[in-house]
């Protein structure tokens, strides 16, 4: 195997979904990859998509695990040991935000405010880990697409609002948004 392979619903032809952060990471790194249908994934290795095969033949699933490895491989998870630690924290925080959003817990305004205030406070620069986009930012796009779809307003959080505008100007992100493929179903 000489490239990376993402296995996902409809091979990301009908929507990007959880493929968003993986594809953005690969595109930002200039990596060679292909996207295949979910049913083409190696059997008996993983339970749910996204499933991802690395050039060394290892296949894993779980979006945040894939992003952690790709971030380390391509230097997109922070430049310092501290930033790399925070990358892991932010990926898992965003997973919690997504889970709570989908379960309805964020319909409680106080709970939503706690999460959005926390995320807002983490944006002390343009992006979550500094002045350049990272796997955290790419994963946050997936989460914030759902936040927008579910009608959870975040416009009162200045740093999040600035980040949302800035991340959409990143070349790989612009390319994905202009692909004609919806971001989420």
TrEMBL record:
It comes from the Eukaryota. One of its GO terms (molecular function) is glutathione transferase activity. One of its GO terms (biological process) is glutathione metabolic process. Gene3D superfamilies: 1.20.1050.10, Glutaredoxin (3.40.30.10). SUPFAM superfamilies: GST C-terminal domain-like, Thioredoxin-like. Residues 56-185 form the GST C-terminal domain. PANTHER family: GLUTATHIONE S-TRANSFERASE. This is GST C-terminal domain-containing protein. It comes from Chrysophaeum taylorii.
